[in-house]
Each structure stands twice: as C-alpha cells, then as structure tokens.
Specification:
This protein is an alpha/beta fold. The chain has one domain (11-27, 40-123): 3-Layer(aba) Sandwich (Rossmann fold), CATH 3.40.50. The chain has helices at 22-35, 53-69, 74-84, 93-102; strands at residues 8-14, 36-49, 91-92, 107-114, 117-123.
C-alpha cells in the first residue's frame, strides 16, 4: 500500500481510514505523514466506537433513530449494517488520536463529535 502526495499541505480523509484493514492503517498514516509539508494539516473524519459500551449502544440507537426520521426503514438499516459488518472497522476516538500522534504529528485535536462520528485535525 502506498500513496503519492507530492507537496501536500492538507490531506482530507473523510470516512476512509475505517475501511482500511487495521494491519495497514498505521503504515498508511506514516506514508501520509512522511510526504506532507512541514506544518501540513491532516483532517480525519471517522465513525468511532464509544469509550464505554453503554454510550456506544446509545449512540448507535440514536443514529438508527435519526435514519428512521429520514425515511430509512428497518430493512434498509439492517441491510446497510450487514453490508458494512467486518468491512468497516472503527477504532475508539482515543485510539485514532494515539495512532496519529505516534506517527509524528505534533498537534491533534477533535473538532467534531456527533454520536459515533468524530472529526480530528492534526498538524505535522
């Protein structure tokens, strides 16, 4: 796996890393970091697991309720869940943050959190 990012000042990964096999995530982040300009910015938006299983279950319920309010029926919700099972593998927010910092990024901050989705900005 490799990416070519010549002269990258900003890299945006929106709901992407969660689909990369965990075995390859750190290598991909390292490749991105290595090619970024000094003071470059990584913007990462991901589905995340809650730190606590109670909140995790609640957030998933609230998210499904949100889908129902937006005209998804239970069959569509179940089919989407099944299609993503073992393909979308989310980490906890803190695991993503730790992984980013371990790759060399100097600063890392959560700029968005809604149920089980989070946005992180990191600076090289």
């Amino acid at each position: 796996m490799g990416v070519a990012l010549p002269n990258a000042s900003v890299v945006v990964m929106c709901l992407t890393l969660q689909f990369i096999r965990p075995l390859y995530r750190e290598r991909l982040l390292q490749d991105i970091y290595n090619q970024m300009n000094e003071n470059g910015c990584l913007i990462l938006v991901e589905k995340v697991h809650g730190e606590d299983s109670l909140f995790n279950r609640m957030f998933i319920k609230y998210y499904y309720d949100f889908k129902r309010r937006n005209n998804y029926n239970d069959m569509e919700i179940a089919q989407k869940k099944e299609a993503l099972e073992n393909v979308l593998i989310p980490y906890k927010l803190l695991e993503n943050r730790e992984m980013i910092l371990n790759k060399g990024f100097r600063y890392c901050e959560t700029f968005f959190k809604w149920y089980n989705f989070a946005g992180i900005v990191a600076i090289k």
